[in-house]
Amino acid sequence: MSKNEIIVGLDVGTSLTKIAVGRRLREDKDPSIIALGVAPSEGLRRGVVVDIQDATRSIHLALDSASKMIEEDIKQVIISLNGSHIKSFETSGKVAVSRADGEVTEEDIARVLSNANPGPSSQNKEIITIIPKTYILDEESGIKNPVGMNGIRLELEALILEGNASPIRNLEKCIQTLGLGIEHQEVGILASAQAVLTKKQKDLGVAVIDLGAGTTSLAVYEEGRLIHVAIIPIGAAHITNDIAIGLRTSIEVAEKVKLKYGSALEDGLGADSKLKIDLAKMNSEEVGVFPISYIASIIEARLKEIFGLIIKELQEIEREGLLPAGAVLVGGGANLNSIADLAKQELKLPVKIGIPQGVEGSIADVDNAIYANLVGLILEGFGNTEEDGGFDYDGGRSAKKTPFKLWGPLNKLIKTFLPD
After folding, report:
1. How many angstroms separate the CA atoms of 380 and 31, rounded?
2. Measured distance CA(209)–CA(353) in Å, rounded
3. Closest CA to 63 of 7, 22, 10, 13
4. Do residues 332 and 211 lie in contact, with contact meaning Cβ atoms separated by under 8 Å?
5. What's the CA gap between 328 and 251, in Å, rounded?
6. Which of 133, 144, 294, 363 has the most CB atoms around its CB within 10 Å?
7. What are the residues facing 76 on neighbouring strands?
8. Tens-place pLDDT, residues 120-145
9. Which residues are 344's β-sheet partners?
10. Which domains are assigned to the chain?
11. pTM of the predicted model, to two decimals?
């Protein structure tokens, strides 16, 4: 990869469409984020496209912003796949080692991966990736990379990530309509994990939780391997809806209230619990005065439901309260005041907010949990991530398309959608 080559990550979320452009300014340094574009998402529901025209317009706006900052062509993107239609399940495969001397080769790895692929579970499904959990060579388990080892029979235990084909095709159509090629696709929560987790955390056992607008995603790692993925169809937008109902106000005002005054713990407000919010000061057409403690109680109730569903997922894999490195929160919802304290209380685990790592000297400020997904996509594009050994399926859809170049006004929405 040349020094001037750029990598572009695209995350089309329920609330925001975000694009980041990365470049490695020096070969011996981590990549830098040289452009960042953000636009409100339209035509999305719970992480999937429901209106191609509106979703394409949102991508167009974000790309316009990023293109203006770097003043060069954007030809291809790495995309984030989101939505509760994405599921994970375990699979296995076995093959005989092909060489006469019994040495395992890369060809054997490819064959056992292929053997472990059962194909989509139904006609409307698509396998996104197969991620090895462990290799077994002649009944010796716990092998991370058997290449070069000697044996007779090679087995694989792996995790398959599968999604509905229609949402994936619809997102691709939006991108290709703008003349862009798709270099690679990655499940969003895995990109976030690459940006915020360390090797030590993955070895000890850790969960990364992405609190998005339409969904909450979970990825669990142990002994350096991904062992579980789940995407729950409830997110931060549901908190906004709850506030709108509780205050009898509009969604727009409810979102402002959440970002400016919201707290995940009613008990954590202290002296501020007696403060009140006058909706008329936020919108002249609104009426009502409410204590901040009431807002916190609404937020806390919904978050407890979300964390309760996370606990159920951990119970399914027998890891409830048993992850020494705890949980790392990312996504826009991770910016709520006191959310780490509530998560620690509910999950019975150490909890921290995940700040993206692995980029340096960036022109664009990505030092926020909301950008974890984007940074992970950039790191993957530059090969700066720990390889999971995933075996991807794209059906040849990564062909290059016509260059995309826009010169509209610079988008200034980035900080608008972040809490003060």
Report:
1. 11
2. 10
3. 10
4. yes
5. 28
6. 133
7. 181
8. 988 899 999 999 999 999 989 989 89
9. none
10. 87-164 (3.30.1490.110)
11. 0.88
